[in-house]
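tool_call: predict_structure(chain=1)
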Amino acid sequence: MTKLRILIVDDHEVVRAGVRSLLEDQTDCDVCGEAGNGREAVSLAQKLKPDIVVLDITMPELNGLEAARQMLKTVANVQILILSVHESEELVREIVEIGAHGYILKSDAGRELAAAIRALRRGESYFASKVAQIVLRAYLNKQSGSQTQASHDHTLTPREREVLQLLAEGKSNKEVASALTISVMTVETHRAHIMHKLEAHSVAELVHYAVRHKMITP
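tool_result:
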């Protein structure tokens, strides 16, 4: 059986080591690379062409949600398996909407990671029991018309989400421009659009929004 090429993405080295150890116990898995932030993950995925990316959500520079969006658009046939501590309904709903193939909690990784990998190999999705309940509840709410209004995050462009995260991490306009290879004026324009769309009046409000949406950790 051809080995699955797997990219591990988490900003904590100890977590990456633990996941690698679990995967190396599986004879059909080959860890082809590791990344410590979302931006590095996208670059490595485009270079290494993994079959599966095991991806955390809250990471510096580019969060897992945005990294997943970019990888699904630019890496052919890649499958995204979210490995996170978060289990909020809003977050799970966003993960499903962007096209992730699985979602397990870090607390359950020892028991469920191998099963999730096998499910993805078969072309199936895999959601941990707690997460599956959230997915079902969100679906039923949507069917009954009680779905809450879509979050502001859906109104931001991919570039605006990148700029928002970097600003919320405390980077200056110049540092954001350098990180994204754009001009300071372009950053200022994106910043103004973000503030308007989110009805925010200060960077503190942007930070609060980013924390609430798991883009950064407080």
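agent: The two ends are 44 Å apart (CA to CA). Proceeding to next step.
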